[in-house]
Amino acid sequence: MNDMTGAVTVDLLDGHVAVVETHDPPANFFDRDVLAAVADAGERAASEGARAIVLCSEGRHFCAGARLADATGALDPRASAAAVYEQAVRIFRWEIPVVAAVQGAAVGGGLGLACAADFRVAGLKARFEANFARLGFHCGFALSLTLPRIVGQTRAELMLYTGRPVRGAEAYDAGLADRLTELGEERAVALELARDLASAAPLAVRSMRATMRAGLLDRLESALEHELDEQERLWRTEDAATGITASLERRDPVFHGR
Predict the structure, then answer these.
(1) Element (H, E) at 88
(2) What is the CA radius of gyration of the chain?
(3) 139-167, pLDDT tens digit by residue?
(4) Strand ordering across the sheet containing 17-22
(5) Which among 95, 9, 114, 1 has a CA at the least distance from the CA of 46?
(6) Which domains does the chain have, with CATH numbers?
(7) The pLDDT value given to residue 67
(8) What is the dihedral of CA 51, 57, 59, 63, to 10 degrees?
(9) What's the pLDDT tens digit per position in 82-117?
(10) Is the CB of residue 171 less than 8 Å from the CB of residue 119?
């Protein structure tokens, strides 16, 4: 199976492993349509016999998040973000294990996408960054739920409140990366892990995964709704305008709490 839907391909390999890959290098930003194509690809792979998915991207970075210029320029930013999160829910609800192969940056919504996976393989130069506080608004993509589950409450708060990047070795020590690799080996190691997952009894794996993720999925939509409420409120502030403009201009923001 090899199919292109927009900027997303899906390949079903020997051993019941599917590779779902985005193709918008170098940053691999997403919008609603890209996430819809990713969700479609994963659903199709599972329906056609895949037992595990490797989620990856072409080029230098895994995903630098949503396209800020698109989001801030939308006539209805809330509706635009809600459409993105609707597709994110579909990805969270995939029924088979997912391994994210993270090279370069997983920033903002890109970090959210990586944390939607069950496991993350990261290169030494990977950069995990919850940059929302540096943009002046609330986190999204269900990171208020997923990040504490992965790294613990206090470490998640530190990442979210400061927006400080966490790089490969530190991410591995924190449990944010489950495997640490040399640069360029991320996908190979992710495939190895996915093949291990796919070689186990598939009905048992699906059953246990549903049990383990039940609490996350039960809270997912309400968490996204709360995040969106807070994002909408904070998008109207001077700090958000400052942070977003500074990010687009590649300079440090100076916030005034307004």
Answers:
(1) helix 77-92
(2) 17
(3) 999 999 999 999 999 999 999 999 999 99
(4) 2-5, 8-13, 17-22, 52-57, 98-102, 119-123, 179-181
(5) 95
(6) 2-184 (3.90.226.10)
(7) 82
(8) -150
(9) 999 999 999 999 999 999 999 999 999 999 999 999
(10) no
